[in-house]
Amino acid sequence: MRTGGDTMLIVRDGAYYQPNDDRQAKAGSIEHHVWLLTLNDALFLSPLQDPQRVLDVGTGTGLWAVDMGDRYPSCEIIGTDLSPTQVPYAPPNVRFEIDDCCSEWTYPENSFDLIHVRGLTGSVGNWPKFYQECMKHLRPKGYLEQLEFGIDIYTEPKETPYSDIIRSFGPLLLEAGDRMNKTFEVATHMSRMIEQAGFVDVVTKRFLWPIGPWSDDERLKELGRWNLKNWEDGMEGWVMALLTRIHGWSYQEVQNYRARLLKGVKSDEVKAWHDVLVVPFASPYTPFAD
């Protein structure tokens, strides 16, 4: 299906809301780079020493899985997504599979040292079930690591000529997700949901992503420069299906909204940012493990 020029993936009555075309793949590559800048080039924060088998759920462009394969050549990495992931330069220890993480998982139990989840906000209808699958398929000393973006945009100063348009972004996504029964309020609640699923040692780290190079801190300035590019290239794909299919907007209304919001966050009058949250090492509850 095509929506406003984008090829949309329709699986199980609209399970996925973002395009799966080359343009969105480019945006995904930029976002991967922003995550690497955020984590100081680390691919995971869990205290794993020698991972042997890793699952990357919602692998998208597959870049994280490929980087893992390059850094850990003795580790088997499986990247899954709803549509095919084709990375011609993937190392031999990396493979990609078409799979729906919201269905019953088909891997043997206790299979993985690390389950890596990034950017599934708005894609999962039953998070408790998803976390139970993670619990079931992690090895006793394995880790679940999840990284998600907060949907609310903050500004300094709080009141500007662009405040209304900037503040509208989060509520629009939240309402669309509620109508689809796929919440967009994942980042702020995932640690609680992970604990409720039975994981222990659940830690949450919060990072700031500037939108634009306005920070005096050189690292944040660089991160903001790339995140602005992330928004410029990725925003249309994030919102087009939600605003047209769920909210009933026209294609042109979405384009006008995108242009106005980007004009606001790029204004010299505005310092805009949003949060990203990471649960870096949640462990399965294994009271009798050594």
UniProtKB/TrEMBL annotation:
For this UniProt record, give its keywords in alphabetical order, as a comma-separated list.
Methyltransferase, Transferase
Entry's Gene Ontology molecular function annotations: methyltransferase activity
The record lists the organism as Diplodia corticola
Pfam families per record: Methyltransf_23
Q: Does the keyword Phosphoprotein apply?
A: no
Provide the protein name.
Sam dependent methyltransferase
Keyword Transferase (UniProt): yes
Q: TM segments?
A: none
Q: Which GO terms describe its biological process?
A: methylation
